[in-house]
Each structure stands twice: as structure tokens, then as C-alpha cells.
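Session log. Operator J.P. requested a structure for one protein chain; no other inputs attached. Running the standard single-chain path with C-alpha cell output.
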Amino acid sequence: MPATPPSHATRTVLTAVVCAALLLGASPATHADDGRTGPGAAATHPGPRPLTGDTEVHDPSATRLHDGTLIVYSTHNGIEARTSRDGVHWRRAGSAFRSVPAWWRSYSAEGDVWAPEILYRKGTYWLYYAVSSFGSNHSAIGLATSPTGRPGTWQDRGVVFSSTTADDYNAIDPAIVQGDGGLWMSFGSHWTGIRMVELDPRTGTVRSGAPVHHLATRRDAPYAVEAPYIVKRGAHHYLFVSYDRCCAGTDSTYHIRVGRALSPTGPYTDRDGTPMTEGGGDVLLASHGRHIGPGGQSVLHDRGRHVLVHHYYDAEDGGVPKLGLTSLRWDADGWPVAGP
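Structure written below.
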């Protein structure tokens, strides 16, 4: 493990100069360990739906509010919000937080937050998010709640889970799934990859004494797998992850892979049966045409359909990170396929 592995938490709307400076110490991962197809200009990958307005995001998470408005929260600036009435035209709608909770400074000198996860449970909107700094696993996952899900209405509930430099995992990139009668939070970036803990469904915090399960990792340092998201469909749980190098504009090699399991805690395998703890995972979406480095994904179940919500770097717009909404369908064997 390198001393400062690159972190999913760096996904913020950076200038080219800052992004380049951050990436000087990052070691991009390779594909040689698993023999699977890496990202490239693959004509078989579909493009996201055409969008207009303010779509410059990293690590988007989306839901539909009670009035029918779609809202996306994303990394940076107190968790940025963008809204749309039609799913096509988007506008900036402020930030989740109007002020920085004091505890954030213990994990980020800048008080910045990343990789939000929004969901609605039992009459309340829940917002999980990560606080850390580049290349560090001195990190924390926080929780806020809101009656409306709108920017400026969130009440912070403090730390849900944390990691220290003595741990072999990184407490960032939270995602929530319900299954096997429990509520679970997956998380992780680099170090030993993707982990999971059980939550108390009443409070949304980690159950006392809950073990940390291991869901996925890579065979090659710096173990570049992150941004987990789990979908329960039928008998299976599907684990979506981002592989390789994020946040390098059009030099990004980020791409999305998937495996599945019968239990939320795994074991997750790909179509060939390769465990995701051994580098498994089928490529779902990779670079194609102008859409470079798709990743930082979540999945929106909206009006009976699944939508892969992700960012990518626009090769026709100077590598600006943009919101991608790519349809998901399911094949005869129950595996997700990107595209209509």
C-alpha cells in the first residue's frame, strides 16, 4: 500500500492546476492483474441522456422529492445541490449545509465534504457524506436529516463511523442498502477496498459492536476500487464500484464494474464466478467517445426504472466533470446492462 493512495474524496470541481498537483503522487492502477477489458473508446458503451444547464458535478446521488422535483447532491461546497423538473435541464440550487459543523475540521482542514448519499426512510430524508483529506484514511462518515430534502434544511447528526491511520480501510464513500432484515452501509476507497457495517434502522448510526465486513478489493497496489453502491433486486444484491484513476480530466481511467451476491455482506462475484475480494467485477460502463472516466456512481430507482447516476469528464469541453444519467436494464440472467 502506498503511503498516500489517491482518494475518491478528491472529487471536487478542481482547476487543472490544483488537480495536477494532487495527482503528482498518485499511482494509477493497472488492469494486468485480472485480464478483464479496461476502459477505452468502446463503441459498445451507451452515452448518457443529453442534459442542459448546470451539470458540473462529482460523485452524484439523486432522489425524487415529494413534489416531483429531481435533486442531485454532489461533492464540494457543503454538498452541492442541483434540481430538475424534467430530468433534462438542471440548475444550481445551493448547498445542503449553510455553515460548516465544527467537527468537520477534525478530518478536513478546509471543512470540505464529499460523496453524499441521499435517501428517504420513514418520513425523513437522510444524507450521509464523507469528511477527509487527500491521501488520508483519517476519515469520517457523517449523517444529516431533513423533512424536505431541500438545501439549507439539513440538521447535522454528527459522526456515524470513522477510520484512523491505524485501520486498513478508509471511511469514505457511504452508500445504504436494506436487506436480510437489516440496514447496511457500504463504504471504502483504496487501502483494502470496500467494506460494510450494519446500521441501527431507527437512528441510522452503526450498531454497537457491528463487525466490519469485506466486500471487494484489488490484487494490485494501490487497490484502486471505491465508490460502492448496492442495489437489491430479486434474490440478489448488486455491488457497483468504480475502478482505477479518478479526477484527472480526460486522462482519467475510471470505470464502473459490478458483481452480485445473495447476501448484502457477500460474497460478491462476477459472471465468471471471480470473487470481488480477488479483483472480480464485470465492466458495466467505461470511457467511450466524449465521455471519459465514468464513475462515482449511485443508482436511482425512479418510477419503475433504474438509472445509473455518475460523473464523467467531457472530452469536448476541456475535461469538465459532468453529470451522467445512464439507463440500466436487466438481462435474462438478472445482470444489469447499461443502456436502453
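Operator note: The CA atoms of residues 125 and 146 lie 5 Å apart.
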